[in-house]
Amino acid sequence: MSESQLPLWFPLQSRPIGKFKPTLAEIEEFIHRRSEIYDDLKNDHDFSKRHGESDAAYQERIAVDSKTITVMKMGIVEDLVYTNWFLEYEGDLFQYRFENALWSDKEKVLDFLFPDDEFGQNWMVLDDLIAHLGEDLIQELNIPPLNTRKEQAKKSQYLTYKGEEFGMQKMIALSYRYASAHLLRRNKRIIIYKGWVLLSLDRYSTTIKHRYQDLFQEDLDKLRERIKTEASGEIKRLRGQINDLIHRHISPKYSLNTVGSLNLEGTINNMILFPPCIQELLQKVDETGYLNHNQRLQLGLFLKHIGMGVDEQLRYWYERAVDNKGLSFEEFESRAGYNIRHLYGLEGSEKDYNMIACSKLQLEYYCTFIQRDVSGVKSMVEHYMKQQPGYDQARKHPIALQVIQNKEKSQPKMACAKYLEMTSNRTVKAITFPLQYVNIAAKSSGKLLETEPIPEVEEEEVTPVD
Amino acid sequence: MTEPSEVTSFDPDQLQEDFKRYYKDHFDRTILHRIFKNKPFGTREFAVLRMDMNTWVRNRSFENMDVLIEYLTLYPAKGVYIGALYEEPLTREKTIHNTKWMGRELLFDLDMDAYDPVRTCECSGRKVCEICWVHMQEAALIIDDTLRIDFGFSDLVWVYTGGRGYHCWVLDDSTFTLTRDQRVAIISYMQLIIGDEVKELGPNEKFMKNRILNHLARNFVTHSKESLLKEEAGFGTTTAKRMKDKIETVSSPREILELAPNTDDFFKGVIKHRYPRIDQGVSVDLKKVIRMPGSVHFGTRNVSEIIDNPWDFNPIFHAKSIYEVMGDE
Questions:
Q1: Which of these, A430, A451, B112, B264, could form a disulfide with A413 (CB 3.0-4.6 Å)?
Q2: Given phi > 0 = left and psi -120 to 50 = alpha, else beta, which region is A143?
Q3: Measured between CB atoms, does B153 come within 8 Å of chain A?
Q4: B151/A184 Cβ within 8 A
Q5: Alpha carbons B297 and B79: distance in angstroms, whole number
Q6: CA distance A144 to chain B (A)
Q7: Which of residues 265-304 of B touch A (CB under 8 A)?
Q8: Are residues B10 and B33 in the same domain?
């Protein structure tokens, strides 16, 4: 796919923007306009060609879009919190533009996002898949007809119906390699056949957005690497100025109603009582303001089950998450609050969700002893040990060694149990539930926390796979 | 006839010699050629549980098959395991933790002890019998079907581990470099039992349901006591008896379901008691080591072998001991 064929509004293409030396006033204007679009995507007037507009005029107009992205990237690339914020909002903007683009443009973007590789094509429309497999899939797989899909979209507040030229109801086949665990586990509407995951395009919107965000992130990572070798002080100074402008324009709108800095006595101050996975997630929120969907769910449920109330948790996330940029607490509560209240059984199906067990965390969420490699676990253990009185670098702490050994043997539950033993002097064979860790650690420290029944520990074999 | 039960008494010195002799003269090298296909041999991780030292040796690479066999001929191996492929040969300095991972096959591990909560015979743990081994046969059927039809994989190799289960190696090239997240996606789709919880069906609901009923419902009814059918599937005493009589006569999933008074409970019972219990850790861990096909299972003395029809194979009757293979029996 030649980049010259991609729609002009698609940012992930190298397009010369000519001599570009904006003034600070121009930069400020770019940032201001972008933040208006983030506030309400319907303010995004520039992305599509207007009726009767010449190609040249459209190209000049859309060039501003490219310049804005260039400026924003320069300003936030070394700012971890705002990078995550930027990814979130650019992802939403991309999704909006993609959904509103004509099918002919959508095809080109899909070719870019899911390119062919050594195993063949990675996406195609249903008709092409039928020809490719030589099977009557519509009959065999009970694929709902186009009219049914259109009607569903027209009735639904979550799907998009815009007319056939936009192609949102087309059935798309995506290679299983691009389908997330979330999609394959939960979505009852998808059909999986011969390695192809079939779904109508409007229901694929989030998957496509995530793929775009992954590539956008890679783009930023490359930029960050290039910047490291820069010598020019002028560029560094300009980046700092842009960063300041972004912070000024897009920061949480704290008001008198926000109760200062949240005192989390009984929760965050007791972090040592929490399992390593939760400690890491708490730290990540503090440092970057961002967790992915599953990690947010994991932390949100944990905070709920150690006694944090829904209002407290709303404020916790408002204080820290990238989603707060440009929002007052009330605005944040009305947008993100639904998801948090949902955890407490106050919205939607009103189900009171339990904390997730370790076996599930290890597979689909975040487990320190799965996600971190051996050197990462070693650093974590050493960091803890160095803070202990009487630490002797020459003398290896036996329990600390056992934490690392269990990681090396791919035994996360036992590694976590040894970590607990290292930090609290309490012995347990395996940790199978995050709250189990908290209860044992709390008892050891003499603190009183609400107790939950500690689950039975399963026997673990200390051998590789037989 | 060899039962895959643990051998408890032996002469350790003789055993070491027997194992070394097996690898020297009787190990079927074509098995590893089949598994590795055209992938480099010399940068693959091997792990060996040494009989003489009773310790693990990990982070080992062998230049080629001859060097591997030479090692196993010199040093008696209680167990031999294969890991992932790395960029360079592994050494004391270049370990799996600091050498670039290049890929590994998609693997599934089925172990009888995962079925302890639902076995209807007296067996548990490492013990297996004709009755409970049916779980393995059913699991192989379901997994094989799912991998071929739903995911389009075509190069599957089933291996009897020599002990109490199967491994399935998916050798399609497209799976070799799958990331952990991608493997999680596949296993998330296939996994219907997590801990004690039976998950709701997600995608392909109708297909999965038919597959499960076709392959598992009959055995669920015939192998379960009436008390279990009453407790798990909502049957009354009369219905349970009638179900057991009639189940042999029906053929389609719909007919099977129609016999059940509460189809949801019945279906959930079928999944809970018969659906494959996959060790998800094996499938998603990119660096896990797994028993080498063709190697000897120390506990049973059986040889781990490639099986063409895991749904027909039964180790009680078909497993070969190291001594049979060497012609000593």
A1: A430
A2: beta
A3: yes
A4: no
A5: 7
A6: 13
A7: 279-282, 284-285, 287-291, 297
A8: yes
| B147 and B20 within one domain | yes
Most distant CA atoms of chain B, gap in Å: 68
Domain interval for residue B201: 193-274
Radius of gyration, alpha carbons of chain A: 25
Does the distance separating the beta carbons of A188 and B151 come in below 8 Å?
no
What sign does the CA torsion over A139, A144, A148, A150 have? negative
Do both B154 and B198 map to the same domain?
no
Task: Categorize the per-residue pLDDT at B308 as very low, low, confident or very high, splitting at 50, 70 and 90.
Answer: very high
Instruction: Report pLDDT digits (tens) over A374-432.
Output: 889 999 999 888 888 877 765 678 888 899 888 887 789 999 999 999 998 888 889 98
Contact B149 A410 (CB under 8 A): no
Residues of A with a Cβ under 8 Å from any B Cβ are: 118-119, 142, 176-177, 179-181, 183-197, 357, 359-360, 362-364, 373-375, 408, 410, 463-466
Tokens 């030589």 belong to: A134
> What is the nearest CA distance from A292 to chain B, expressed in angstroms?
14
Both tokens of A416, joined, read 């976590």
> Cβ–Cβ of B282/A465 closer than 8 Å?
yes
Q: Are residues B139 and B208 in the same domain?
A: no
Give the whole-angstrom CA distance, residue A221 versus residue A405.
33
B274, B300, B317: which is the final residue of a domain?
Answer: B274
B146 and B169 belong to one structural domain: yes
